[in-house]
Protein backbone atom coordinates (compact mmCIF):
# COMPACT_ATOMS: atom_id res chain seq x y z
CA UNK A 1 0.00 0.00 0.00
CA UNK A 2 1.34 3.46 -0.85
CA UNK A 3 1.86 5.78 2.13
CA UNK A 4 0.35 9.16 1.30
CA UNK A 5 -0.66 10.56 4.68
CA UNK A 6 2.27 12.70 5.87
CA UNK A 7 3.67 15.13 3.30
CA UNK A 8 4.07 12.62 0.49
CA UNK A 9 4.81 15.28 -2.11
CA UNK A 10 7.32 17.76 -0.61
CA UNK A 11 8.02 20.86 -2.66
CA UNK A 12 11.65 21.70 -3.35
CA UNK A 13 12.05 25.46 -2.78
CA UNK A 14 15.65 25.68 -3.91
CA UNK A 15 14.71 24.32 -7.33
CA UNK A 16 14.58 27.62 -9.31
CA UNK A 17 17.93 28.72 -7.88
CA UNK A 18 19.73 25.45 -8.47
CA UNK A 19 19.47 25.72 -12.24
CA UNK A 20 20.80 29.29 -12.31
CA UNK A 21 23.71 28.47 -9.98
CA UNK A 22 24.51 25.38 -12.07
CA UNK A 23 24.62 27.46 -15.29
CA UNK A 24 26.97 30.05 -13.72
CA UNK A 25 29.21 27.32 -12.27
CA UNK A 26 29.30 25.55 -15.65
CA UNK A 27 30.36 28.77 -17.43
CA UNK A 28 33.17 29.30 -14.89
CA UNK A 29 34.28 25.67 -15.22
CA UNK A 30 34.22 25.91 -19.03
CA UNK A 31 36.40 29.05 -18.97
CA UNK A 32 38.87 27.45 -16.55
CA UNK A 33 39.04 24.18 -18.49
CA UNK A 34 39.52 25.77 -21.92
CA UNK A 35 41.50 28.94 -21.09
CA UNK A 36 42.86 29.09 -17.55
CA UNK A 37 44.23 25.56 -17.06
CA UNK A 38 47.70 25.00 -18.56
CA UNK A 39 48.38 22.73 -21.53
CA UNK A 40 49.62 19.26 -20.61
CA UNK A 41 53.30 18.65 -21.40
CA UNK A 42 52.66 15.14 -22.79
CA UNK A 43 49.12 15.12 -24.23
CA UNK A 44 48.82 18.77 -25.24
CA UNK A 45 45.29 20.20 -25.32
CA UNK A 46 43.67 16.79 -25.79
CA UNK A 47 43.88 16.21 -22.04
CA UNK A 48 41.29 18.97 -21.45
CA UNK A 49 38.55 16.39 -21.99
CA UNK A 50 39.57 15.30 -18.47
CA UNK A 51 37.46 18.21 -17.16
CA UNK A 52 34.38 16.57 -18.65
CA UNK A 53 35.29 12.88 -18.38
CA UNK A 54 36.16 12.78 -14.67
CA UNK A 55 33.16 14.84 -13.46
CA UNK A 56 30.87 12.63 -15.58
CA UNK A 57 32.37 9.54 -13.93
CA UNK A 58 31.85 11.07 -10.50
CA UNK A 59 28.26 11.96 -11.34
CA UNK A 60 27.56 8.44 -12.61
CA UNK A 61 28.71 7.05 -9.24
CA UNK A 62 26.79 9.72 -7.31
CA UNK A 63 23.59 9.24 -9.31
CA UNK A 64 23.57 5.47 -8.88
CA UNK A 65 24.42 5.74 -5.19
CA UNK A 66 21.43 8.08 -4.80
CA UNK A 67 19.33 5.41 -6.60
CA UNK A 68 20.55 2.91 -4.01
CA UNK A 69 19.66 5.18 -1.06
CA UNK A 70 16.28 6.11 -2.53
CA UNK A 71 15.55 2.43 -3.25
CA UNK A 72 16.25 1.56 0.37
CA UNK A 73 14.02 4.48 1.36
CA UNK A 74 11.16 3.15 -0.77
CA UNK A 75 11.52 -0.41 0.51
CA UNK A 76 11.61 0.87 4.08
CA UNK A 77 8.85 3.50 4.02
CA UNK A 78 6.89 3.03 0.76
CA UNK A 79 6.79 6.81 0.33
CA UNK A 80 6.41 7.82 -3.35
CA UNK A 81 8.98 10.60 -2.92
CA UNK A 82 11.75 8.01 -2.64
CA UNK A 83 10.62 6.29 -5.82
CA UNK A 84 10.55 9.64 -7.63
CA UNK A 85 14.12 10.35 -6.50
CA UNK A 86 15.22 6.86 -7.56
CA UNK A 87 13.82 7.08 -11.09
CA UNK A 88 15.05 10.65 -11.53
CA UNK A 89 18.56 9.80 -10.41
CA UNK A 90 18.65 6.60 -12.49
CA UNK A 91 17.70 8.48 -15.66
CA UNK A 92 20.32 11.16 -15.04
CA UNK A 93 22.86 8.48 -14.12
CA UNK A 94 22.26 6.59 -17.37
CA UNK A 95 22.57 9.85 -19.32
CA UNK A 96 25.84 10.77 -17.59
CA UNK A 97 27.25 7.25 -17.86
CA UNK A 98 26.54 7.25 -21.59
CA UNK A 99 28.29 10.62 -21.92
CA UNK A 100 31.12 9.33 -19.69
CA UNK A 101 31.69 6.39 -22.05
CA UNK A 102 31.52 8.59 -25.16
CA UNK A 103 33.90 11.19 -23.64
CA UNK A 104 36.30 8.40 -22.65
CA UNK A 105 36.12 6.99 -26.16
CA UNK A 106 36.91 10.39 -27.71
CA UNK A 107 39.90 10.71 -25.36
CA UNK A 108 41.03 7.14 -26.05
CA UNK A 109 41.38 7.61 -29.82
CA UNK A 110 44.27 10.14 -29.77
CA UNK A 111 45.95 8.68 -26.64
CA UNK A 112 45.48 4.90 -27.01
CA UNK A 113 44.91 4.83 -30.78
CA UNK A 114 41.50 3.12 -30.55
CA UNK A 115 37.94 4.21 -29.79
CA UNK A 116 37.31 1.18 -27.59
CA UNK A 117 39.43 -1.55 -26.03
CA UNK A 118 38.53 -4.51 -23.80
CA UNK A 119 39.91 -2.83 -20.71
CA UNK A 120 38.44 -3.73 -17.27
CA UNK A 121 37.39 -0.13 -16.53
CA UNK A 122 35.65 0.25 -19.89
CA UNK A 123 33.92 -3.11 -19.71
CA UNK A 124 32.73 -2.71 -16.11
CA UNK A 125 31.43 0.78 -16.94
CA UNK A 126 29.53 -0.60 -19.93
CA UNK A 127 28.08 -3.32 -17.67
CA UNK A 128 27.01 -0.67 -15.14
CA UNK A 129 25.35 1.28 -17.97
CA UNK A 130 23.47 -1.85 -19.11
CA UNK A 131 22.35 -2.64 -15.55
CA UNK A 132 20.65 0.72 -15.17
CA UNK A 133 19.21 0.59 -18.70
CA UNK A 134 17.64 -2.69 -17.51
CA UNK A 135 16.41 -0.86 -14.39
CA UNK A 136 14.69 1.78 -16.52
CA UNK A 137 13.33 -0.87 -18.87
CA UNK A 138 11.79 -2.76 -15.94
CA UNK A 139 10.13 0.46 -14.82
CA UNK A 140 8.80 1.29 -18.27
CA UNK A 141 7.30 -2.18 -18.77
CA UNK A 142 5.54 -2.38 -15.40
CA UNK A 143 2.11 -0.81 -15.15
CA UNK A 144 1.22 -1.05 -11.44
CA UNK A 145 2.86 1.82 -9.52
CA UNK A 146 3.64 0.08 -6.24
CA UNK A 147 4.84 -3.14 -7.87
CA UNK A 148 7.02 -1.22 -10.30
CA UNK A 149 8.59 0.86 -7.53
CA UNK A 150 9.31 -2.18 -5.36
CA UNK A 151 10.83 -4.27 -8.12
CA UNK A 152 12.92 -1.38 -9.41
CA UNK A 153 14.10 -0.74 -5.85
CA UNK A 154 15.39 -4.30 -5.59
CA UNK A 155 17.44 -3.80 -8.77
CA UNK A 156 18.56 -0.40 -7.43
CA UNK A 157 19.89 -2.06 -4.29
CA UNK A 158 21.66 -4.92 -6.09
CA UNK A 159 23.15 -2.86 -8.93
CA UNK A 160 25.06 -0.56 -6.57
CA UNK A 161 27.59 -3.39 -6.18
CA UNK A 162 28.94 -2.40 -9.60
CA UNK A 163 30.11 1.07 -8.47
CA UNK A 164 33.13 -0.14 -6.42
CA UNK A 165 33.81 -2.78 -9.08
CA UNK A 166 34.05 -0.05 -11.76
CA UNK A 167 36.22 2.19 -9.60
CA UNK A 168 38.58 -0.49 -8.32
CA UNK A 169 38.78 -2.51 -11.55
CA UNK A 170 41.95 -0.61 -12.54
CA UNK A 171 43.60 -1.76 -9.29
CA UNK A 172 42.31 -5.35 -9.33
CA UNK A 173 43.11 -6.17 -12.96
CA UNK A 174 45.75 -5.31 -15.54
CA UNK A 175 44.40 -2.19 -17.15
CA UNK A 176 45.32 0.20 -19.93
CA UNK A 177 43.33 2.85 -18.09
CA UNK A 178 45.36 5.03 -15.76
CA UNK A 179 45.20 4.45 -12.00
CA UNK A 180 43.23 6.84 -9.73
CA UNK A 181 44.87 10.27 -9.91
CA UNK A 182 43.07 12.39 -7.32
CA UNK A 183 41.63 10.00 -4.72
CA UNK A 184 44.35 7.41 -4.22
CA UNK A 185 45.68 5.46 -1.28
CA UNK A 186 48.94 6.61 0.34
CA UNK A 187 49.69 9.78 -1.58
CA UNK A 188 48.71 13.28 -2.58
CA UNK A 189 46.94 13.86 -5.91
CA UNK A 190 49.27 13.16 -8.86
CA UNK A 191 48.16 16.25 -10.78
CA UNK A 192 49.38 19.84 -11.17
CA UNK A 193 47.77 22.21 -8.63
CA UNK A 194 46.10 24.47 -11.24
CA UNK A 195 44.82 21.43 -13.15
CA UNK A 196 43.59 19.92 -9.90
CA UNK A 197 41.77 23.15 -8.97
CA UNK A 198 40.13 23.34 -12.42
CA UNK A 199 39.06 19.72 -12.04
CA UNK A 200 37.57 20.50 -8.63
CA UNK A 201 35.58 23.43 -10.06
CA UNK A 202 34.38 21.20 -12.92
CA UNK A 203 33.29 18.51 -10.49
CA UNK A 204 31.38 21.08 -8.40
CA UNK A 205 29.74 22.54 -11.53
CA UNK A 206 28.67 19.13 -12.81
CA UNK A 207 27.38 18.18 -9.35
CA UNK A 208 25.23 21.31 -9.32
CA UNK A 209 23.94 20.42 -12.78
CA UNK A 210 23.07 16.95 -11.44
CA UNK A 211 21.11 18.37 -8.50
CA UNK A 212 19.34 20.88 -10.79
CA UNK A 213 18.33 18.06 -13.13
CA UNK A 214 17.34 15.89 -10.17
CA UNK A 215 15.12 18.57 -8.64
CA UNK A 216 13.35 19.18 -11.96
CA UNK A 217 12.87 15.52 -12.72
CA UNK A 218 11.65 14.72 -9.19
CA UNK A 219 9.11 17.53 -9.47
CA UNK A 220 7.88 16.10 -12.80
CA UNK A 221 7.67 12.59 -11.38
CA UNK A 222 5.82 13.71 -8.24
CA UNK A 223 3.35 15.61 -10.40
CA UNK A 224 2.86 12.49 -12.53
CA UNK A 225 2.32 10.38 -9.40
CA UNK A 226 -0.16 12.91 -8.01
CA UNK A 227 -2.18 12.91 -11.23
CA UNK A 228 -2.11 9.14 -11.34
CA UNK A 229 -3.42 8.83 -7.77
CA UNK A 230 -6.08 11.48 -8.42
CA UNK A 231 -7.22 9.64 -11.54
CA UNK A 232 -7.43 6.41 -9.57
CA UNK A 233 -9.43 7.94 -6.72
CA UNK B 1 6.51 -27.21 9.04
CA UNK B 2 9.73 -25.18 9.18
CA UNK B 3 11.16 -22.91 6.46
CA UNK B 4 13.52 -25.59 5.13
CA UNK B 5 10.69 -28.13 4.76
CA UNK B 6 8.51 -25.55 3.04
CA UNK B 7 11.26 -24.80 0.53
CA UNK B 8 11.80 -28.50 -0.11
CA UNK B 9 8.07 -28.94 -0.64
CA UNK B 10 8.05 -26.18 -3.28
CA UNK B 11 11.12 -27.76 -4.94
CA UNK B 12 9.52 -31.23 -4.92
CA UNK B 13 6.29 -29.79 -6.37
CA UNK B 14 8.28 -28.00 -9.05
CA UNK B 15 10.23 -31.13 -9.99
CA UNK B 16 7.03 -33.20 -10.07
CA UNK B 17 5.45 -30.65 -12.43
CA UNK B 18 8.57 -30.69 -14.60
CA UNK B 19 8.51 -34.51 -14.69
CA UNK B 20 4.84 -34.57 -15.67
CA UNK B 21 5.19 -31.86 -18.35
CA UNK B 22 8.90 -31.55 -19.15
CA UNK B 23 8.37 -28.82 -21.76
CA UNK B 24 10.75 -26.39 -20.05
CA UNK B 25 13.41 -29.05 -19.69
CA UNK B 26 13.05 -30.29 -23.28
CA UNK B 27 13.10 -26.74 -24.66
CA UNK B 28 16.21 -25.87 -22.63
CA UNK B 29 17.97 -29.09 -23.64
CA UNK B 30 17.19 -28.63 -27.33
CA UNK B 31 18.11 -24.97 -27.21
CA UNK B 32 21.42 -25.66 -25.43
CA UNK B 33 22.39 -28.43 -27.83
CA UNK B 34 21.51 -26.25 -30.80
CA UNK B 35 23.45 -23.30 -29.40
CA UNK B 36 26.56 -25.44 -28.76
CA UNK B 37 26.34 -26.75 -32.33
CA UNK B 38 25.78 -23.35 -33.92
CA UNK B 39 28.48 -21.62 -31.89
CA UNK B 40 30.98 -24.38 -32.72
CA UNK B 41 30.12 -24.11 -36.41
CA UNK B 42 30.38 -20.32 -36.34
CA UNK B 43 33.81 -20.43 -34.72
CA UNK B 44 34.99 -23.41 -36.75
CA UNK B 45 36.16 -26.69 -35.16
CA UNK B 46 39.75 -25.49 -34.66
CA UNK B 47 38.81 -22.41 -32.63
CA UNK B 48 35.87 -24.03 -30.83
CA UNK B 49 38.16 -26.78 -29.48
CA UNK B 50 40.28 -24.25 -27.56
CA UNK B 51 39.53 -24.85 -23.84
CA UNK B 52 38.71 -21.18 -23.20
CA UNK B 53 36.40 -20.91 -26.21
CA UNK B 54 34.68 -24.26 -25.57
CA UNK B 55 34.06 -23.31 -21.91
CA UNK B 56 32.69 -19.89 -22.85
CA UNK B 57 30.35 -21.35 -25.49
CA UNK B 58 29.08 -23.95 -23.02
CA UNK B 59 28.42 -21.49 -20.18
CA UNK B 60 26.73 -18.92 -22.42
CA UNK B 61 24.40 -21.70 -23.62
CA UNK B 62 23.73 -22.69 -19.99
CA UNK B 63 22.95 -19.08 -19.11
CA UNK B 64 20.28 -18.89 -21.80
CA UNK B 65 18.96 -22.32 -20.81
CA UNK B 66 18.60 -21.11 -17.21
CA UNK B 67 16.42 -18.18 -18.29
CA UNK B 68 14.27 -20.53 -20.39
CA UNK B 69 13.77 -22.98 -17.51
CA UNK B 70 13.01 -20.23 -14.98
CA UNK B 71 10.61 -18.41 -17.30
CA UNK B 72 8.73 -21.62 -18.10
CA UNK B 73 8.62 -22.54 -14.42
CA UNK B 74 6.97 -19.24 -13.47
CA UNK B 75 4.69 -19.40 -16.52
CA UNK B 76 3.26 -22.59 -15.04
CA UNK B 77 2.65 -20.80 -11.74
CA UNK B 78 0.83 -17.97 -13.47
CA UNK B 79 -1.34 -20.15 -15.71
CA UNK B 80 -3.60 -21.24 -12.84
CA UNK B 81 -2.67 -18.49 -10.33
CA UNK B 82 -0.96 -21.13 -8.18
CA UNK B 83 1.66 -18.58 -7.21
CA UNK B 84 -0.91 -16.49 -5.33
CA UNK B 85 -1.75 -19.44 -3.09
CA UNK B 86 1.91 -19.81 -2.09
CA UNK B 87 2.45 -16.09 -1.57
CA UNK B 88 -0.37 -15.74 0.96
CA UNK B 89 1.09 -18.50 3.16
CA UNK B 90 3.25 -17.58 6.14
CA UNK B 91 6.86 -17.77 4.87
CA UNK B 92 5.56 -18.59 1.41
CA UNK B 93 7.69 -16.02 -0.40
CA UNK B 94 10.97 -17.31 0.98
CA UNK B 95 9.85 -20.89 0.35
CA UNK B 96 8.89 -20.02 -3.22
CA UNK B 97 12.26 -18.41 -3.88
CA UNK B 98 14.39 -21.10 -2.21
CA UNK B 99 12.31 -23.95 -3.66
CA UNK B 100 12.52 -22.52 -7.16
CA UNK B 101 16.30 -22.03 -6.84
CA UNK B 102 16.76 -25.67 -5.75
CA UNK B 103 14.45 -27.11 -8.42
CA UNK B 104 15.79 -24.95 -11.25
CA UNK B 105 19.38 -25.77 -10.21
CA UNK B 106 18.56 -29.51 -10.39
CA UNK B 107 16.91 -29.22 -13.82
CA UNK B 108 19.75 -27.03 -15.04
CA UNK B 109 22.31 -29.57 -13.76
CA UNK B 110 20.70 -32.28 -15.90
CA UNK B 111 20.70 -29.96 -18.93
CA UNK B 112 24.35 -29.06 -18.24
CA UNK B 113 25.29 -32.73 -17.96
CA UNK B 114 23.75 -33.52 -21.34
CA UNK B 115 25.12 -30.37 -23.01
CA UNK B 116 28.55 -30.99 -21.44
CA UNK B 117 28.63 -34.55 -22.79
CA UNK B 118 27.58 -33.22 -26.21
CA UNK B 119 30.36 -30.62 -26.16
CA UNK B 120 32.99 -33.18 -25.10
CA UNK B 121 31.98 -35.59 -27.87
CA UNK B 122 31.42 -33.08 -30.68
CA UNK B 123 34.53 -31.03 -29.97
CA UNK B 124 36.62 -34.04 -28.99
CA UNK B 125 37.79 -32.32 -25.82
CA UNK B 126 40.17 -33.92 -23.36
CA UNK B 127 39.42 -33.39 -19.68
CA UNK B 128 42.53 -33.27 -17.50
CA UNK B 129 40.73 -32.77 -14.16
CA UNK B 130 37.25 -34.34 -14.31
CA UNK B 131 36.54 -33.85 -10.59
CA UNK B 132 37.40 -30.17 -10.77
CA UNK B 133 35.23 -29.77 -13.88
CA UNK B 134 32.24 -31.32 -12.08
CA UNK B 135 32.85 -29.07 -9.06
CA UNK B 136 32.96 -25.98 -11.30
CA UNK B 137 29.74 -27.18 -12.97
CA UNK B 138 27.88 -27.69 -9.67
CA UNK B 139 29.06 -24.42 -8.10
CA UNK B 140 28.52 -22.52 -11.35
CA UNK B 141 24.89 -23.63 -11.49
CA UNK B 142 24.42 -22.76 -7.80
CA UNK B 143 25.87 -19.30 -8.49
CA UNK B 144 23.62 -18.71 -11.53
CA UNK B 145 20.29 -20.01 -10.23
CA UNK B 146 19.63 -17.49 -7.39
CA UNK B 147 20.13 -14.49 -9.73
CA UNK B 148 18.05 -15.97 -12.56
CA UNK B 149 15.17 -16.81 -10.17
CA UNK B 150 15.34 -13.34 -8.61
CA UNK B 151 15.27 -11.65 -12.04
CA UNK B 152 12.36 -13.84 -13.15
CA UNK B 153 10.44 -12.95 -9.98
CA UNK B 154 11.09 -9.25 -10.55
CA UNK B 155 9.84 -9.52 -14.13
CA UNK B 156 6.73 -11.46 -13.15
CA UNK B 157 3.54 -10.13 -14.78
CA UNK B 158 5.57 -7.56 -16.70
CA UNK B 159 5.30 -7.05 -20.45
CA UNK B 160 8.22 -8.40 -22.56
CA UNK B 161 9.24 -10.62 -19.64
CA UNK B 162 11.17 -13.05 -21.85
CA UNK B 163 13.51 -10.25 -22.94
CA UNK B 164 13.60 -8.56 -19.56
CA UNK B 165 14.91 -11.56 -17.56
CA UNK B 166 18.24 -11.75 -19.44
CA UNK B 167 18.54 -7.96 -19.54
CA UNK B 168 18.18 -7.79 -15.75
CA UNK B 169 20.23 -10.86 -14.85
CA UNK B 170 23.08 -11.09 -17.37
CA UNK B 171 24.95 -7.92 -16.32
CA UNK B 172 24.81 -9.15 -12.70
CA UNK B 173 25.98 -12.60 -13.82
CA UNK B 174 29.07 -11.46 -15.73
CA UNK B 175 31.50 -12.20 -12.83
CA UNK B 176 29.95 -15.67 -12.42
CA UNK B 177 30.20 -16.28 -16.17
CA UNK B 178 33.89 -15.31 -16.13
CA UNK B 179 34.52 -17.56 -13.12
CA UNK B 180 32.70 -20.52 -14.72
CA UNK B 181 34.52 -20.07 -18.04
CA UNK B 182 37.99 -19.62 -16.56
CA UNK B 183 37.49 -22.40 -14.01
CA UNK B 184 36.24 -24.87 -16.61
CA UNK B 185 39.09 -23.96 -18.99
CA UNK B 186 41.60 -24.53 -16.16
CA UNK B 187 40.00 -27.92 -15.38
CA UNK B 188 40.22 -28.91 -19.06
CA UNK B 189 43.90 -27.96 -19.31
CA UNK B 190 44.86 -29.45 -15.92
CA UNK B 191 45.61 -26.30 -13.90
CA UNK B 192 44.28 -27.48 -10.52
CA UNK B 193 45.28 -24.39 -8.51
CA UNK B 194 43.53 -21.98 -10.89
CA UNK B 195 40.43 -24.19 -11.10
CA UNK B 196 40.18 -24.37 -7.29
CA UNK B 197 40.61 -20.60 -7.05
CA UNK B 198 37.59 -20.09 -9.31
CA UNK B 199 35.53 -22.66 -7.34
CA UNK B 200 36.07 -20.53 -4.22
CA UNK B 201 34.81 -17.45 -6.04
CA UNK B 202 31.78 -19.33 -7.38
CA UNK B 203 30.95 -20.66 -3.89
CA UNK B 204 31.11 -17.10 -2.55
CA UNK B 205 28.78 -15.85 -5.31
CA UNK B 206 26.33 -18.72 -4.67
CA UNK B 207 26.26 -17.88 -0.96
CA UNK B 208 26.02 -14.09 -1.35
CA UNK B 209 23.24 -14.13 -3.96
CA UNK B 210 21.39 -16.97 -2.19
CA UNK B 211 21.32 -15.00 1.08
CA UNK B 212 20.63 -11.69 -0.70
CA UNK B 213 17.74 -13.27 -2.56
CA UNK B 214 16.21 -14.70 0.62
CA UNK B 215 16.58 -11.31 2.33
CA UNK B 216 15.21 -9.21 -0.47
CA UNK B 217 12.51 -11.45 -1.99
CA UNK B 218 9.87 -10.92 0.73
CA UNK B 219 10.04 -7.18 -0.02
CA UNK B 220 10.21 -7.68 -3.77
CA UNK B 221 7.04 -9.74 -4.25
CA UNK B 222 3.74 -8.01 -3.67
Task: Give structural notes.
The complex is a heterodimer of chains A (233) and B (222). With 233 residues, chain A is mainly α. Chain A has a single domain, classed as Four Helix Bundle (Hemerythrin (Met), subunit A) (Up-down Bundle). Helices cover 73% and strands 0% of the residues of chain A. In chain A, helix 1 runs antiparallel to helix 7, helix 2 packs across helix 5 and helix 2 runs parallel beside helix 7. The longest helix of chain A has 40 residues. The two termini of chain B are 23 Å apart. Helix content of chain B is 86%, strand content 0%. Chains A and B meet through helix 4 and helix 5 of A and helix 8 and helix 9 of B.
Would you count the extended β strands of chain B for me? 0
For the largest interface in this structure, which chains are involved and how many residues does each contribute? Answer: A-B, 23 and 18 residues
Note the overall shape of chain B: globular
Largest sheet of chain B: none
Write the SSE topology.
The complex is a heterodimer of chains A (233) and B (222).
Chain A: H1 15-36, H2 50-77, H3 80-112, H4 120-141, H5 145-159, H6 162-172, H7 193-232
Helix pairs in contact in A: 1-7, 2-3, 2-5, 2-7, 3-4, 3-7, 4-5, 4-6
Chain B: H1 3-20, H2 23-43, H3 45-48, H4 51-79, H5 82-87, H6 92-122, H7 130-154, H8 161-189, H9 192-220
Q: Which short descriptors sum up this protein?
A:
heterodimer, A: 233 residues, mainly alpha, Four Helix Bundle (Hemerythrin (Met), subunit A), 7 helices, B: 222 residues, 9 helices, globular
Q: What's the gist of this structure?
A:
By secondary structure, chain A is mainly alpha-helical. Chain A is built from 7 helices and no strands.
Amino acid sequence: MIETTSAPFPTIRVRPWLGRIAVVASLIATFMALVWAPTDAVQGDVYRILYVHVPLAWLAYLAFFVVFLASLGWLWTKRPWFDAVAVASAEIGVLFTGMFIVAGSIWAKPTWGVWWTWDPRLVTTAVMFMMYVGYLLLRSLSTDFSRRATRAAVIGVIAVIDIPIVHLSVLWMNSLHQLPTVVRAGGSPAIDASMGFTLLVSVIAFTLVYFAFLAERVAIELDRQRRMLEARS
Amino acid sequence: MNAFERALLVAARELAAERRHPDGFVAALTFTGLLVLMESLAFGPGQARQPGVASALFWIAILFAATLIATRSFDRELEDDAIDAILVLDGGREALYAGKVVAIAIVLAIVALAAGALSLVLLDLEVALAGHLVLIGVLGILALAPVIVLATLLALRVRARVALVPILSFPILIPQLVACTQGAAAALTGDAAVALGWTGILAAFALVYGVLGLTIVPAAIE
